[in-house]
C-alpha cells in the first residue's frame, strides 16, 4: 500500500472522528447551524471512502483494456465529491428555511461550540496535510479531499463565531441564517471542485508556465535535431503526457535519432515527474519552421 492510499485511509478515520464530535455538538445544542456542520461531515466520510477507492484503483498498472493506466479514475472521485457537496448544501438550505420559520433558543451553546471547535481544529490539521501531500504526490483525489475539508474548517469557524452572538443578542434567527450561509458556501465549493475535475477529464493542457519550461528543455537538449513541433500535453491524475514531433536531418541514422530522443526523455522526466513521453521523428523535409527551435 503506497503513501497516497494510506493518506486516503487516514481521511476515513479522521472524517469519522470529526463527524462524531460535530454530531455531539448538535445533539447538545439543537442548533441548525451545527446540524449543517455535522451533515457536511457525513459527506466528508463518504467522499473519503470514494477517494480511497479511487487512489487504490488508479495505482493499478496498465492492462490490455487500459493501456494508458487507470489514472483518470481520481477525477471521477473528485466529481462525485462535488455532487455530494451540492446535495448536502441543498439539505442544509431546507433545514435553514424551516428554522427561519420557527426559530428556537439554543441549549448549552458554549459546551456545544467547544466540542465543535475541537472537531474544526482536527479538520484544519488534516486538510493541510492532505493538500500538502496531495500536491507533492500529484493526487487529484487527495487534493480535492483536502480542499473540501478546508471549506468545512472555514464554515465551522463562521458558525462558531456567529453562534457566540446568539446568547449575547437574543437573535434566535441567526442560527438558521448561519446555516443558510454555510450551505451557499458549500454550493460554491462543490461547483468549483466539479469544474476543476471535469477539466482533468477533458484532457486540459499543462499550465502555461509548465509548457514554457517543457519547450525550454526540448530546445536545450535536442542537439543534432533541427526543430520540434506539434507539442501536445495533458494531465491524467498523477501522470503527465507529453508528445511532439522531432525533425532531424534526412541523412541521420536511426541510432543517432534514437539517442537524441533518449536524451530528451531523460531531461523532461528529470523536470516533470511521472511523465510519459512520445516523440515522433521526422526527416527535415517535414519541418514546419514554426515550432521549437533547437539551440
TrEMBL record:
* UniProt superkingdom: Bacteria
From the record, give the transmembrane residue ranges. Answer: 7-29, 41-61, 73-93, 113-131, 152-171
Instruction: Give every Cation efflux protein cytoplasmic domain span.
Output: 206-283
The UniProt entry lists the main location of this chain as membrane
Is Membrane tagged as a keyword?
yes
The UniProt family comment states:
Belongs to the cation diffusion facilitator (CDF) transporter (TC 2.A.4) family.
Q: What is this protein called?
A: Cation diffusion facilitator family transporter
Species name for this entry?
Answer: Microvirga arabica
Amino acid at each position: 500500500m503506497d503513501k497516497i492510499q494510506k493518506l486516503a485511509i487516514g481521511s476515513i478515520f479522521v472524517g469519522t472522528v470529526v463527524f462524531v464530535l460535530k454530531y455531539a455538538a448538535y445533539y447538545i445544542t439543537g442548533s441548525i447551524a451545527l446540524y449543517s456542520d455535522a451533515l457536511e461531515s457525513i459527506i466528508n466520510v463518504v467522499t473519503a471512502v470514494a477517494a480511497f477507492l479511487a487512489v487504490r484503483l488508479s495505482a493499478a498498472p496498465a492492462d490490455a483494456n487500459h493501456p494508458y493506466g487507470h489514472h483518470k479514475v481520481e477525477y471521477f472521485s473528485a466529481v462525485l465529491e462535488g455532487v455530494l457537496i451540492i446535495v448536502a448544501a441543498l439539505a442544509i438550505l431546507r433545514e435553514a428555511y424551516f428554522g427561519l420559520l420557527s426559530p428556537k433558543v439554543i441549549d448549552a451553546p458554549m459546551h456545544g461550540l467547544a466540542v465543535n471547535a475541537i472537531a474544526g481544529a482536527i479538520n484544519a490539521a488534516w486538510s493541510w496535510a492532505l493538500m500538502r501531500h496531495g500536491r507533492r504526490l500529484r493526487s487529484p483525489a487527495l487534493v480535492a479531499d483536502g480542499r473540501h475539508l478546508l471549506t468545512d474548517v472555514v464554515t465551522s469557524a463562521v458558525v462558531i463565531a456567529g453562534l457566540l452572538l446568539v446568547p449575547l443578542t437574543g437573535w434566535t434567527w441567526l442560527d438558521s441564517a448561519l446555516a443558510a450561509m454555510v450551505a451557499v458556501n458549500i454550493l460554491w465549493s462543490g461547483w468549483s471542485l466539479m469544474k476543476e475535475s471535469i477539466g482533468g477529464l477533458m484532457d486540459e493542457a499543462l499550465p502555461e508556465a509548465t509548457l514554457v519550461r517543457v519547450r525550454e528543455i526540448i530546445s536545450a537538449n535536442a542537439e543534432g535535431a533541427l526543430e520540434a513541433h506539434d507539442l501536445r500535453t495533458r494531465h491524467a491524475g498523477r501522470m503527465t503526457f507529453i508528445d511532439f514531433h522531432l525533425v532531424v536531418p534526412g541523412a541521420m541514422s536511426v541510432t543517432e535519432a534514437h539517442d537524441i530522443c533518449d536524451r530528451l526523455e531523460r531531461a523532461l522526466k528529470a523536470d516533470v515527474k511521472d511523465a510519459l513521453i512520445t516523440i515522433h521523428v521526422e526527416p527535415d523535409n517535414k519541418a514546419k519552421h514554426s515550432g521549437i527551435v533547437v539551440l
